[in-house]
Write a structure and sequence with these properties.
The complex is a heterodimer of chains A (about 425) and B (about 425).
Chain A (H helix, E strand, L loop, with lengths): L8 H16 L3 H7 L4 E10 L5 E12 L5 E7 L5 H17 L5 E7 L8 H15 L8 E5 L5 H15 L23 H17 L7 E5 L3 H12 L3 E7 L2 E4 L6 H11 L9 E3 L1 H5 L5 E4 L18 E3 L8 H9 L3 E3 L1 H4 L2 H15 L5 H26 L3 H20 L4
Parallel strand pairs in A: 3-4, 3-5, 6-7, 6-10, 10-11, 11-12
Antiparallel strand pairs in A: 1-2, 2-4, 7-8, 8-9
Helix pairs in contact in A: 1-3, 1-14, 3-14, 4-5, 6-7, 6-12, 6-13, 12-13, 13-14
Chain B lengths: L7 H5 L4 H16 L3 H7 L4 E10 L5 E12 L5 E7 L5 H17 L5 E7 L14 H15 L8 E5 L5 H15 L23 H17 L7 E5 L3 H12 L3 E7 L2 E4 L6 H11 L9 E3 L1 H5 L5 E4 L18 E4 L7 H9 L3 E3 L1 H4 L1 H16 L5 H26 L3 H20 L4
Parallel strand pairs in B: 3-4, 3-5, 6-7, 6-10, 10-11, 11-12
Antiparallel strand pairs in B: 1-2, 2-4, 7-8, 8-9
Helix pairs in contact in B: 2-4, 2-15, 4-15, 5-6, 7-8, 7-13, 7-14, 13-14, 14-15
Classes of the chains: A alpha/beta (about 425), B alpha/beta (about 425).
Chain lengths: ~425, ~425
Amino acid sequence: MLTLEKRSPYEIAQEQFDLAAEFMGLEEDLRAILRVPKRELTVNFPVRMDDGTVKSFIGFRVQHNNARGPGKGGIRYHPDVSLDEVRALAMWMTWKCGVVNIPFGGAKGGVVVDPTELSLRELENLTRRFATEISPLLGADGDIPAPDVNTNQQIMAWLMDTISMHHGHLESAITTGKPLGLGGSLGRSDATGRGVSFTVAQAAKFLGLDLDDAPTVVQGFGNVGSISALMLHDLGCKIIAVSDVNGGIYNPNGIDPHAVVKHMKKTRTVVDFPGVERVTNEELLELPCDILVPAALEEQITGMNAPRIRPKIIAEGANGPTTPEADKILYENGVFVIPDILANAGGVTVSYFEWVQDLQSFFWDEDEINKRLKQVMDASFHAVNERAQAHKIPLRLAANILAIERVAEATRLRGIYP
Amino acid sequence: MTVPMIREEIKTASPNLWDVAFTQFTRAADVMELEDSLRLILGNVKRVLTVNFPVKMSNGRTQVFTGYRAHHNVNMGPARGGIRYHPNVNVDQTSAFAMLNTWRAAVVNVPFGGSAGGVVCDPRGQRTGREMTARELENLTRRFTTEIELIIGPQSDILVPEVNITPEIVAWVMDTYSMHHGHTVTGVITGKPLAIGGSALRDEAGGLGVKLVVEQAARLRGMKLNGATVVIQGFGNTGSNAAAFLHELGALVIAVSDVTGAIVSNAGLDPLDVERYRLLNRTLENYPNSEPLTEAELLELPCDILVMAGLESQINASNAPRIRAKLIAEAANLPTTPEADDILRERGTFLIPDLLANAASMMLSYFEWVQDLQSFFWTEEETRDRLRRVVTDAFENVVETSERFHVDLRTAGLMIAIGRVAEATRLRGIYP
């Protein structure tokens, strides 16, 4: 079996950056600036637990770049959070915001904690204290968090409340992913999946692929996977297989994703859905189809299974589902891969809309949000695809180049202070 | 190409400094039976900010530097701590100094927390063989100040000059911060020149503090300072002033060292004359009527008083058995490892720990901040009187605690300091 040296996510992010920087001939000075985060704050903070004891936690907030606007990126609560992971995710956020051309830089944060071991009260204490500790960096104009792994609307509401209490007035634009009643945006929960479907539609048009009855496979049936399936179904695609963490279901004649959503609400899994074949998550990836949406975990398509994965289009709903080795194989096989920083950028785009609405205290209706999202996703797809076709390079490299170019231009224009 | 000069002190500065600071803390916390929750809070830094920032260099290129600012604790008031420009700057070292600064403030009951910071760079060309230009240092300083501005300020974190930080750099920090705020903010950094909000005694305070604690220690040990032999490691500002003060009292300064080398003269050196020579020639080398020696040899000279005014981690388990001084005053921060502490204690060496021996520079920094806050400045006499009172009281307080609990002065000082910070933390409670 092929064994690869285990690289940290930060090393991978820097490698990807170096590759793009080399291809575009970026000057050395800018490479040195952009390949490392601007700021990294590490905080050790105490939290009072329900049994009266005090526990100490470690948390991070990293801002990779803010040349184009405030840092933007999620906060995750997970026992495996590390500074290196947060650095990499912050850097990827810079490029993602650059690809869709929204005026944000990249940031990310996290706390080393297993939230399932905390009571609701402890989770709230932890959130309020962590928000306080990183508050020197946060701000509607400085750095705007969002939900990520194991964090949700409620946690964003606590974070927003904490900062607002410190300032003596409401600070709704300090975070996105808030509940609707609290300055949240319509369309936010569907945004990532909707964005995936927009990029698939554009890719199909470019490839001359008829989406009517196009066999489609979706790995992962969480928020992104399920919305992607529903949207692609609306576009005429024939969903032939979906999966969740327990396994996959397959019917070459098509599965109604609306029925799967209903089934999932009842049973909390897709696997015993009636009238289908059972497949494993691995088998599912290799099913013959036109469109594959990996919307589960990272590193699903590897050097091992990539030769057997032959859809016409892969749209990466998840972050990092394809390894660099697999990327090479897919490209040689002519698979059209829409990379994560483009395919799933709908989420951060509507986060941006939420921030804009909070800034202006004037809220858009859902149609307006979806229309604007489509404009952003379509324009980004075309910008990336044009670049890819012009240089005969994969879309991932083209997307990175486009993003780095935008950030580099902003840095050049602003100059080096003082 | 010139061969970079790698100094002995850099090569030996290897024990992890955070481990040193943490071991010192743990020893005191054990004697105090400090509760676990407070150990968790006080045994770690509150926050560390790492910044990577570009600086325009004289050759037109941009170079990216890494800098740090750590806050150990801010329960008693704004953090206060040094910044240094040195190739050895790292997170562990910065965190260790931040912790030490909390205790240094608390032991003299100054309402400050502890912080520290620095930039990994080589202003003297010790590694690169090329000195940084004044313009590069100014660009670096203004940009570093901007990057850490989020967490510094007269009410949140006050900087002080440390290794390789000149009065010009101090002024640039103050100017940058003030320009961003649209008005003069003097209290963001202490150690300023007199003309821009500095305090009287700025130059002598460190040396005066060493003199005060050495006098008290000598009295306690029945040692006569008249004729006592003195070795000074680190003939910078504090070291040279301490030498001059002790010389005035009749002590015989037999050896001194700085980054350019070390000299010894058994007949005794005139510190003021050495200082004049050093300013003129920018080196101690070839000072008349003296012999050169290595810094390692200097530390091991037989003498009555050894003043450690150089860098951290100078006395460790390997050279401690050969240190023959009767009395050691730690004017530098963390110059002695915990293993060396044990060896020196067994050998009966009287060690005045950093948090007492350099208490005067902490106090003067505090006095400067107070004068900046009130925009009203004290006379030299007033400042000197206050300094003397505080340092003397702190020394007595620490000695008394050390006798009551049968611990060394370092542990006693830390117990007093930790006790105060722990009390403040208990009173304030855990937010939210």
